[in-house]
């Protein structure tokens, strides 16, 4: 990640200051800031990358993950979907490479959850389960 850029942490549990999981995290009334080299910031960047639909951001229609264009729908290749996810994770600032990616579609809940393992710039391998960040996309 670019030096000097800070990310606001997201609440991972409900408490008196943080009533909603995934909202901006507060401690003693102050925002919790993550530094650019913090693995939690990289995990949040992966979640943002996977959670933004391609074409959703009005300033750059090319940004985002191609959920509608390449993933959701009948007849999609699981190998191609995994390759797209692996590329999106590997190209996230702070990630050297994605070593594993899997996904599960819950048709009844209409949700797709993603699990990954990646080699971060700090030289360690992290898994999506190491972080309290949701990697779930609603496919309604």
How would you describe this structure to a colleague?
This protein has a single domain (38-138), classed as Nuclear Transport Factor 2, Chain: A. Helices cover 22% and strands 27% of the residues. It has three helices and eight strands, in the order E-E-E-E-H-H-H-E-E-E-E. The strands form three sheets. Strands 5, 6, 7 and 8 form a four-stranded antiparallel beta sheet that branches. It has a two-stranded antiparallel ribbon with strand order 1-4. A two-stranded antiparallel ribbon has the order 2-3. It is globular. The model is unreliable at 1-5 (pLDDT under 50).
CA radius of gyration is: 16 Å
Helical segment count: 3
Mean pLDDT: 84
Sheet with the most strands? 4 strands, antiparallel
How much of the sequence lies in strands comes to 25-35%
CA(first)-CA(last) distance: 33 Å
Portion of residues in helices?
A: 10-25%
Q: Could you give the count of β-strands?
A: 8
Order of helices and strands: EEEEHHHEEEE
- Give me the CATH architecture, please: Roll
The unreliable regions are 1-5
Q: What is the CATH class? A: Alpha Beta
Estimate nothing, just give the exact number of structural domains.
Answer: 1
Q: What would the CATH topology be?
A: Nuclear Transport Factor 2, Chain: A
């Amino acid at each position: 990640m670019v030096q000097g850029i800070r990310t606001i942490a997201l609440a991972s549990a409900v408490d008196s200051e943080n009533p909603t999981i995934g909202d901006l995290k507060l401690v003693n009334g102050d925002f919790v800031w993550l530094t650019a080299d913090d693995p939690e910031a990289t995990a949040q960047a992966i979640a943002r990358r996977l959670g933004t639909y391609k074409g959703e951001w009005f300033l750059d229609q090319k940004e985002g993950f191609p959920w509608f264009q390449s993933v959701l729908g009948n007849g999609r290749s699981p190998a191609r979907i995994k390759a797209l996810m692996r590329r999106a994770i590997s190209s996230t600032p702070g990630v050297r490479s994605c070593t594993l990616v899997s996904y599960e579609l819950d048709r009844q809940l209409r949700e797709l959850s993603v699990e990954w393992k990646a080699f971060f710039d700090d030289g360690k391998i992290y898994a999506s389960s190491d972080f309290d960040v949701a990697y779930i996309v609603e496919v309604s």
